[in-house]
Design goal:
Layout lengths: L2 H11 L27 E11 L4 E12 L8 E9 L6 E9 L5 E5 L5 E7 L2 E8 L2 E10 L2 E10 L4 E5 L2 E6 L4 E9 L2
Antiparallel strand pairs: 1-2, 1-12, 2-3, 3-4, 4-5, 5-6, 6-7, 7-8, 8-9, 9-12, 10-11
Amino acid sequence: MSLRSKLFVAIVVTAGVGCRSVEPQPAESVQASAFPDDFVGLWRGPCEIWRFDGSKQELEMEFEVALVPGVVGPTRYRWTLRYLPDSGPVDERNYELLFTDDPGRFVVDERNGIRLDSFWLGDRLVSRFEVRGTLLESVTRRIGGTVELSIVTGPVEPSGESGGGEVSGVRGFALRTQQVARMQRVP
């Protein structure tokens, strides 16, 4: 099984109903960004993947952002993710971030026919999408001198419902995994 397949299985296919939380960052440490220019460069750091069963996987990750020069049409940035395991091949994802005509809306083009709508909300780029019955939410943001990429996954089917009648019905959704990478700029 390829590293990409293993990571997909680790992140997406693990079954369960909970997820460990990540320590919240103080509001004052979150900086306003000139997105995406503040993200340009090569970033590297630890990536941790927590599963509902308490297991944890750790590996290094790189994130590289660069303006694509000479493009006719919407502004594009190279948006490259690299998973760097202790052994085995590097898993590189060569995506592009595209500007749209809608302020705050971007598209992450996976360059294989898949394009994910992404939205700049406050101080972060957020994408929410479904693949093979799994709902994923990806968040990319700057915190001080770091870039944080996080992905939370869970089944698209509700895990429970409550309310109804005179109270609005509410559906809950289980979580399976949380992946968080906190990376520093590489000089």
